[in-house]
Amino acid sequence: MSLRAVIAGVGSALPARRVDNAELAKQLDTTDEWIVERTGIRTRYIAGDDETTGTLATEAARRALDHAGIAASEIDLIVLATATPDQTFPATATKVQTALGIDDCVAFDVAAVCSGFLYALTVADSMIRSGGAKAALVIGAETFSRILDWEDRTTCVLFGDGAGAVVLAAEEGGTAGILATKLHADGRHNQLLYVDGGPSTTGTVGKLRMKGREVFRHAVLNLASVMGEVLDLAGLETADVDWVVPHQANARILDATAKKLGLSPDKVVLTVDRHANTSAASVPLALDVAVKDGRVKRGDIVVLEAMGGGFTWGAAVLRY
Ligand code: UT7
Hints:
By secondary structure, the protein is of the alpha/beta class. It has helices at 21-25, 32-39, 53-68, 92-99, 116-129, 153-156, 212-234, 251-261, 272-275, 282-292, and strands at 3-13, 17-20, 43-46, 77-81, 106-110, 135-143, 161-172, 177-185, 193-195, 208-210, 243-246, 301-308, 312-319. Oxa(dethia)-CoA (UT7) binds next to α2, α6, α7 and β12.
């Protein structure tokens, strides 16, 4: 019998303040029409002064624990993916741990930007399958609003804040759980999507910079290819897939990737219209929406995928 990491519960959290395109158009040279046509984004959520990556992550984690019916005290591993931690250190995962009242567990952050959740999920899956953890919280949480240049219309309209979480539980035998994961990174593309600051260089937090058109081209190629790879690893075909829950960067990327794979757009969960790009939070946020509205059901084959700064990209296939 082999150990598998099964998704026992999902949860998410959004800041209280929702901002639509019309509100952004009041202070920027942009329009609702341009944003919707080029990206599919209509609204995003922006964190207030009392909301941080840590508070959003904690709320998402609480909801995932409730959904799983698992007590916080049973969690022995927290992996939190973020590029916008509350502090440079300690890890935001340890803030979530304390807020949940967990006295002792393994807790650390993973930095792989928009692919962060896939990286975190892969690490947690490996630890569970090797017997190093029994119940894990895997969280993607971001407050990208704090690293945006609000005068740069080419980037600031694209991103939002939020958090999503899953509880992974070790199960012996059975058919559910994570079937395969595949990760990649290629640092040669660092300058296409980056933050122009950091503790060891400028001593500042910095602002996000992106050459969108180039990132778009790489995203479609890399995402279609890594989804093919992960399905091969699991011995599955595109026709076996019930749902794809992709990183939500741009509705046109989702359409182009689905087309490249020969996948019906009806099988792709889309939340970029309401959340915008929430980086590491986007996949677990979208998964939570699709589970709670009844689309993703127990037994479904689900592919998760993401691509982001680095570049980093990856995919996972699971039976929910
Ligand atoms: O999460 C990590 C991964 N990130 C992504 O995957 C993002 C990938 N890239 C994209 O989603 C798209 O490339 C963007 C949405 C960023 C841009 O769409 P595009 O169709 O590639 O537009 P573009 O960058 O080629 O710009 C077209 C025009 C430009 O004007 P000119 O030079 O043609 O006169 C821009 O200045 O649109 C202009 N523009 C805007 N106009 C109104 C750029 N941003 C805006 C804006 N409002 N907000």
